[in-house]
Amino acid sequence: MRATGIVVEYNPFHNGHLYHVAQAKKIAQADVCVAVMSGSFLQRGEPAVVDKWTRTKMALHAGVDIVIELPYAYSTAQARQFASGSISLLHAIGCESVVFGSENGDIAPFSHTHHLISSHRTEYEAKIHEAMQLGLSYPKALQHAYQHVLTYATEATVDLAQPNNILGYHYVEAAHELTIRPLTIPRIAAHYHDENMAHDTIASATAIRKALFDTKNLRDIEAFVPAPTYEALTDWQTHSDFIQWQTFWPLLQHTILQKTPQQLTQYVDVSEGIEFAFIKAAKTSTSFAEFMQKVKSKRYTWTRLQRMITHIFTGYTKELNATFTAPRYIRLLGITKNGQAFISQQKKSIPLPLISRVASSDDAMLQFDLQAANLYDVGANMTRSAPRLNVDYRTPPLRL
């Protein structure tokens, strides 16, 4: 059996994701699709709209054969670390390829871009450092450095101003370090950050979440998601609100205000005096949106600030982060019969522990994942009719 991998968040799963799964198997000529999925907190520094188990169920009903969890250390990291952790797990489980969405669906410009940057790596990194010293945000610093090395280009390259292309470049970069083949398909109809639903059946996850938060009427998004997703979201709504930072605001505000500025600097990404702004804003804000408007500046993107906030909320310190240099296990969240057959075929060659029951492992990286999941549930319990905790300890991998 041949497997292809995809890197996902499914926040939530929609018709564009359904297309991605089907096309991934098709262009990779694969029997099995493995999704490495972020858990409770996501790459843009925000809690998932519904929990990992609900999103796993959506994926299994839509053609994904195996869902594994991307550890918190990578799911909340910048694009390069996010991609590196994801690709290494797909490689470890035995995927021969990885398929991602991009703006034009052509892998050649990504390969050319990777070769270009690799050939001028020292100069590229120096330009990034130079730009950040001048006060540019990390994404803008990357653009500055990229525009510089583009002067050496002799073949078509990708536009790294597009969010999906940035991640795609880092997938290709990580894949080149391993024996895994990068492939890409074009995104259809909706772009990554589109907030409008202009197409009849395709909308971005951003637009779908906006509709869920604004109206809370699932009928507004029914045409844009597969039936199992709609059913899963309906079930979730019967016992909880859809999750966003505002849901957690009282807990986040409490967490920030009980820390000194010096204590806040121990958390990943918190630096350069932003800790004082966090405390000042937390003292005077009545909502998460108001808090963010008070701390946002040209120096800090919304996403960068949210990542800092996520690490403060979960207690993810720089000291702990320094100990996590590579994924150390494969956490199984869900599997189909087809996926089980693949695992049986691969089991002896998988180099990392394959974890189905979390109680069987005391790995520090996994323990932090469990802590983050519990804190997610504490926040969700503020709107949930039937509160719950320690769900990961009581939930085996979902089987379809």
From TrEMBL:
Binding site for ATP: 7-20, 101, 164, 187-188
GO terms assigned for molecular function: ATP binding; ligase activity, forming carbon-nitrogen bonds; tRNA binding
Any one cellular-component term (Gene Ontology): cytoplasm
Catalytic activity as recorded in UniProt: cytidine(34) in elongator tRNA(Met) + acetate + ATP = N(4)-acetylcytidine(34) in elongator tRNA(Met) + AMP + diphosphate
SUPFAM superfamilies according to UniProt: Nucleotidylyl transferase
Alphabetical GO biological process terms: tRNA modification
Keyword Signal listed: no
InterPro entries in the record: Rossmann-like_a/b/a_fold (IPR014729), tRNA(Met)_cyd_acetate_ligase (IPR008513)
Keywords: ATP-binding, Cytoplasm, Ligase, Nucleotide-binding, RNA-binding, tRNA processing, tRNA-binding
EC assignment: 6.3.4.-
Gene3D superfamilies in alphabetical order: HUPs
Domain of life, per lineage: Bacteria
Subcellular location: Cytoplasm
Role played: Catalyzes the formation of N(4)-acetylcytidine (ac(4)C) at the wobble position of elongator tRNA(Met), using acetate and ATP as substrates. First activates an acetate ion to form acetyladenylate (Ac-AMP) and then transfers the acetyl group to tRNA to form ac(4)C34.
Family: Belongs to the TmcAL family.
Annotated PANTHER family: TRNA(MET) CYTIDINE ACETATE LIGASE (PTHR37825:SF1)
Protein name: tRNA(Met) cytidine acetate ligase
Organism the protein comes from: Caryophanon latum
